[in-house]
Amino acid sequence: MSQAAVVGSEFEARYTIGEVAERTGLSAHTLRWYERIGLLDHPARSHHGQRRFSEADLGWLAFLGNLRATGMPVAAMLRYTELVRAGDGTRAERRELLIAHREEVLARIRDLQANLLVLDYKIDLYGQDCQ
Amino acid sequence: MSQAAVVGSEFEARYTIGEVAERTGLSAHTLRWYERIGLLDHPARSHHGQRRFSEADLGWLAFLGNLRATGMPVAAMLRYTELVRAGDGTRAERRELLIAHREEVLARIRDLQANLLVLDYKIDLYGQDCQ
DNA sequence: TCCTTGCTTAGAGTGCACTCGAAGTCAGTA
DNA sequence: TACTGACTTCGAGTGCACTCTAAGCAAGGA
């Protein structure tokens, strides 16, 4: 990590794309792609034109990571991002979107667990020695 | 469902591809594709050359459905299928394969639950009215 | 007779989420 | 001086799991 990253506020822009790639597990290509499609605000630039991401950018990427890890499609993440950009008037709608997504994730977990039972049963059968 | 489906043994072949499609939720196209790539044994044929699936075929498809629903890639399902075809000598290996898969699924569930906590937190924040 | 459902092969198309390549430039570091 | 890593556009490629089309034919039911 760069020395410049040791101090500073949430909005101070200091991480290079390479550093952010390492921290988030996304590739530099993907970060630029996120920016291009609108998932990510255009980050600050250094005086040489290189991207410099802030703590706030990292936080946003981490949240996108949560959505992604729970299987939200990019199109829905984009919708959410646009609501955030649209300001406080969209808070209720954002909340509903997250709640609907949570329901889907819960349903997926239940589904996985149900299917897991069948797997367990099959594994048990193999543990004995018929069929 | 056809009348012919009312009685008969596990190995009696009686379901048309359309009936199987309806029962499994897979399309007729996909069923033929499964057969072509080796996920499914060639089913019996009627005297006119049409596929006639047995109860046993349906059972196998249901099990494949479990694997699929837990996110097993087709390549791994194929590996498992080949082990089944190879006979009883592969039972230990099949069991290990299923156990390894179960571990992955459990890990995925844990991961979903962890990410869900963040979502819950965010939803809570929206429930109040800051940030 | 017409409609539905089935059959065949081989290949193309779909949707998602990246992922990479080309091709050239620029800045900082060892 | 050489190397590394950043920059640009933008289109093509990847991998997965289907999904469909074409084109023509056959059987069964209303």
Summary keywords:
131 residues, DNA-binding, 7% strand, 2 domains, Multidrug-efflux Transporter Regulator, Chain: A, Domain 2, homodimer, disordered N terminus, 3 strands, 3-stranded antiparallel sheet, mainly alpha
Can you walk through the features of this model?
Two copies of one chain form a homodimer. Chain A has helices at about 15-25, 30-35, 55-70, 75-85, 90-125; strands spanning about 15, 45, 50-55. With about 130 residues, chain A is mainly alpha-helical. The first copy, chain A, has two domains: about 1-85, Multidrug-efflux Transporter Regulator, Chain: A, Domain 2, CATH 1.10.1660.10; about 90-130. Chain A has a three-stranded antiparallel sheet with strand order 1-3-2. Mean pLDDT of chain A is about 85; it is low at about 1-5. At the A-B interface, helix 3 and helix 5 of A face helix 3 and helix 5 of B. Chain B binds a DNA duplex (30 and 30 nucleotides) through helix 2.
Entry summary:
The structure is a homodimer of 131-residue chains. By secondary structure, chain A is mainly α.
